[in-house]
Design goal:
The complex is a heterodimer of chains A (364) and B (400). Chain A is of the alpha+beta class and 364 residues long. Helix content of chain A is 48%, strand content 16%. Chain A has helices spanning 8-25, 29-35, 40-47, 69-82, 84-91, 94-103, 106-116, 231-263, 275-303, 309-333, 345-357, and strands spanning 125-127, 143-147, 150-161, 168-175, 178-185, 191-196, 207-218, 265-266, 269-270. In chain A, the strands form 2 sheets. In chain A, strands 1, 2, 3, 4, 5, 6 and 7 form a 7-stranded mixed sheet that branches. In chain A, strand 4 (168-175) and strand 5 (178-185) form a beta hairpin. The two termini of chain A are 20 Å apart. The model of chain A has no long low-confidence stretch (mean pLDDT 97). Chain B is of the alpha/beta class. Chain B has 3 domains: 8-105, Butyryl-Coa Dehydrogenase, subunit A, domain 1 (Orthogonal Bundle); 125-228, Butyryl-CoA Dehydrogenase, subunit A, domain 2 (Beta Barrel); 241-392, Butyryl-CoA Dehydrogenase, subunit A, domain 3. Helix content of chain B is 44%, strand content 14%. Chain B is built from 9 helices and 7 strands. Chain B has helices at 8-34, 77-97, 104-112, 115-121, 241-278, 294-321, 327-352, 363-370, 380-392; strands spanning 126-129, 145-149, 152-163, 170-177, 186-192, 198-203, 214-225. In chain B, strands 1, 2, 3, 4, 5, 6 and 7 form a 7-stranded mixed sheet that branches. Chain B is globular, with a radius of gyration of 22 Å. Chain B starts with 7 loop residues before the first helix and ends in an 8-residue tail after the last helix. Mean pLDDT of chain B is 91; it is low at 57-69. Classes of the chains: A alpha+beta (364), B alpha/beta (400). At the A-B interface, helix 8, helix 9 and helix 10 of A face helix 6, helix 7 and helix 9 of B.
Chain lengths: 364, 400
Amino acid sequence: MFGFSMSNEQKMVSREVSKLVKGLVADKAHEMDENKEIPEDVIQKAWELGASVSSVPEEFGGHGMEDSPIESIIVLEELAYGDMAFAVAATSPSLFINPVLTMGTEEQKKKYLPLYCKEKFKASTLALNEPHFGSDVMNLKTTAVKNGGSYVINGTKCFVPMADKAGHMLVAASLDGENNLFIVSADNPGVVIGEREKNLGCYALPTFEVEFKDCSVAENDRLGGASGCNYTRFIQKTRVGMAAMAAGIARASYEFAKEYAKGRVQFGEPIVNRQSVAFMLAEMSYEVDSIRLMAQKAASELAAGKDVTRSSYLAKMYAGEMAMKVTDFGVQIMGGHGYIREYPVERYYRNARGISILEGMAIV
Amino acid sequence: MINIDTPEKIEKMKNGLNNLAKGMLRPISRKYDEAEHEYPQELEVFRSMSVMGKKPKKNGDESKSKAKDDGEFKVGQNLGTVVSVEEMCWGDSALLLSLPNAGLGNAAIAAVATEEQLERFGSKWASMAITEPASGSDSGSIQASAELDGDEWVLNGEKIFVTCADRCDVAVVWARVKGVEGSSAIKSFIVEKGTPGFKLEHLEHKLGIRASDTGTFVLNNCRIPKSNLLGGDSDKKKKTEGFKGVMKTFDNTRPMVAAMAVGVARAAIDFTREKMEEAGVKIDYTDNPNNVSSVVKEFYMMEANLEAMRLLTWRAAWMADNEEENTLEASMSKAKAGRYGTLITQKCCELLGPMGFSRKYLAEKWMRDSKIMDIFEGTGQIQHLIIARNILKLTRNELK
């Protein structure tokens, strides 16, 4: 049924996640960013939400629920609203689990899903982004070449979340000009994990450059087996997820700046009484809504089994651009205080830049 | 539950209306833009279709759009209207405004007229006369006056920027009742063409929507029957309902104007896409946006903004259909669509190069037409003011 309002169930999901995130992260986000660390128990508690495993069949350790892109974007927005580094960390296993579940062979599902759908959080991840100028996940420079009964992967990936702790990673590589995903074990000798990266944003999230040097992967570990997988659809689903995260970050910036501006008195009255400030906040309010609507549109089409090439692409593009604009305004409205790390708006600003640049940080 | 995948019913509606727009409006689009003020005879066929004159559904009406759990989706009146308006404006926004019997006054009459007034004026073409030389955004400050003299109202004042001023049969005129203080004094009066003291003074020459007749009325001791007070004199109604009631209808009309902006912008985008593809430019929503050419990236951003404009508009319309308070969302839709519709049509002209500057093609006309959508029915600045006051909980005195 067509509609713009959340159902009672969706409202409940939103409320529950929001409550959990508030309890886990509200006071800690600044500290985590400064200490460049997310406490393990915070990740574990977020993991217990079950977002990454909700649609994995029970036999593999999941909740066996129906796949719901709309519910996923509701959850992702709330996680990112709390903190983006935390959101990526908490859901990074889904970048491994979701493709294996939806595109893996039966053997692959049986072998790998139970390893990462346990009660205790176990890291798995996706190696997708590449460090060169012009990096494009649809035109990968990392290659896979068939060699007897295996594939040999060569290339360099960057911004791989939790690569140091992951047991397995999905690696995106081009095989005979076609994009594919390969299941690679972290202890494969051809995997060289670099130093922890220093990034513009998500300071609390450990990310790594990973080099693949003649990394040999069994035939059976090409996702989807001999017929490969729908890599494009996978990327499109991640774009929808990232648009949802963008809505969360943008909303966090908007709400914080709004409250600040209402209380900040200069020239004898709150600065919200000035059109220049009030109008920035007005624009922020409808751009937050627009980002969310773009994500909802693409998610609705996914739910209907439709092609989302255009809607997912435009949603991520819009989200990246507008989240940057909103978080920029967020800093600006706070004036000098917006520049100080004690306040979260500068962190939202740094994190928001990642939406346009990075791919594969979340999936629906 | 949230599901904003476009329903098939709406797809069908769009296709049908698009054919209409393509077949009936596009062919005469340039003709009436050049022949400013000449009446588009070809639109006579629409006279009985009452695009604007539909009476809003009342409580208890069975065909109401509120989402039912019977599983069958019904397109609500407001949603249906914004979908229709988008397609018609994709055709030609000035011609939409020129549809006979589809004036803004018709909407007002349909909404609040008494039975007797509906009989007298229901089938007439009605314009809406609000703005005055000194009262634009500040519609509460209008000075046109109405004084009761026995069985007649005597109206005095000047109204400008009245759409359909020439072609209408009657005008719905906002005037201040003498002796009453404040905004509750503002009422609407139906004035028929030909009434002594009611004169169409001149028609405007405009940047765009030239096919739409925009004019000035002068009322000079114009006498109309007492029964021409729109909605009748009701003691039952609360004092302030008159002005506030009309302001409330803006919650329904703002998404419509936003839809106009979506339609015109889309026309420009569709034409630009056509030219890009003819030139062999690849638009496939695949490569990293920073690796495509500038024209493709700008094109994608326009498309994304168009989608956002439309989603905000549909949301506001859907909320109205579902009886949810939508003042904020209505203003959001017009604020975004008005501004970005303008930017999109400007950008399309730029990307089209000389084709965007030539009157051989309609792109330059769309750029001229779209500008008004950020201005009438509450400027973009007013929309931002409404949004800001709403989200910040500020009064008119706190945020000017």
